[in-house]
């Protein structure tokens, strides 16, 4: 595949075979970014787990100290006082049977969902629609809760989901190219700590096989997985 001029320039700045410290890698992500929009920055963990096994699944949510930089539209399944609380907390969409009907009709104009426990009987009917999109409310992720205000604030404040795919790779948003490298590194550190903390007990062999960071349109930059603290340090 023929490289574009910007891709060639980016490749020249990245040393092949080198594993960069987190701060250095994320500084490079910013440096080689050439898109005309504010690209999203992600970290990709290739893990030594077999997600086909029930005891080696990896999924959860982590709060980024500096936010994700993404405007999150939240839909809330609630009635009565909980519905009013959701509206006051800034949820873009709040409903019950009407919201279920809208989703069944194919109207999905949101990035995350929250539901009160009493609504899950109705929300359960949407599993085949919301599940594949990663939008199904889940008590393990804190999105099925009577405290809708807290859940909405966390989602809008930078709480992001991580989930290892069938290849054992977890792709996690850590911010935008416009963020300072230090802020991106702090977000990276929060995700790194969470991924390590949540290592499945059944996982065998090397857990952190490789870590790569990249922007939406940029090349992947290998990160030294042995760096486990002082993530925002330039040294």
Automatic annotation (TrEMBL):
<keyword id="KW-0820">tRNA-binding</keyword>
<comment type="function">
    <text>Binds directly to 23S rRNA. The L1 stalk is quite mobile in the ribosome, and is involved in E site tRNA release.</text>
</comment>
<dbReference type="InterPro" id="IPR005878">
    <property type="entry name" value="Ribosom_uL1_bac-type"/>
</dbReference>
<dbReference type="InterPro" id="IPR028364">
    <property type="entry name" value="Ribosomal_uL1/biogenesis"/>
</dbReference>
<dbReference type="GO" id="GO:0006417">
    <property type="term" value="P:regulation of translation"/>
</dbReference>
<comment type="function">
    <text>Protein L1 is also a translational repressor protein, it controls the translation of the L11 operon by binding to its mRNA.</text>
</comment>
<protein>
    <recommendedName>
        <fullName>Large ribosomal subunit protein uL1</fullName>
    </recommendedName>
</protein>
<dbReference type="GO" id="GO:0003735">
    <property type="term" value="F:structural constituent of ribosome"/>
</dbReference>
<dbReference type="GO" id="GO:0006412">
    <property type="term" value="P:translation"/>
</dbReference>
<dbReference type="Pfam" id="PF00687">
    <property type="entry name" value="Ribosomal_L1"/>
</dbReference>
<comment type="subunit">
    <text>Part of the 50S ribosomal subunit.</text>
</comment>
<comment type="similarity">
    <text>Belongs to the universal ribosomal protein uL1 family.</text>
</comment>
<dbReference type="GO" id="GO:0000049">
    <property type="term" value="F:tRNA binding"/>
</dbReference>
<keyword id="KW-0689">Ribosomal protein</keyword>
<keyword id="KW-0699">rRNA-binding</keyword>
<dbReference type="InterPro" id="IPR002143">
    <property type="entry name" value="Ribosomal_uL1"/>
</dbReference>
<keyword id="KW-0694">RNA-binding</keyword>
<keyword id="KW-0687">Ribonucleoprotein</keyword>
<dbReference type="InterPro" id="IPR016095">
    <property type="entry name" value="Ribosomal_uL1_3-a/b-sand"/>
</dbReference>
<dbReference type="GO" id="GO:0015934">
    <property type="term" value="C:large ribosomal subunit"/>
</dbReference>
<keyword id="KW-0810">Translation regulation</keyword>
<dbReference type="InterPro" id="IPR023673">
    <property type="entry name" value="Ribosomal_uL1_CS"/>
</dbReference>
<keyword id="KW-0678">Repressor</keyword>
<dbReference type="GO" id="GO:0019843">
    <property type="term" value="F:rRNA binding"/>
</dbReference>
<dbReference type="InterPro" id="IPR023674">
    <property type="entry name" value="Ribosomal_uL1-like"/>
</dbReference>
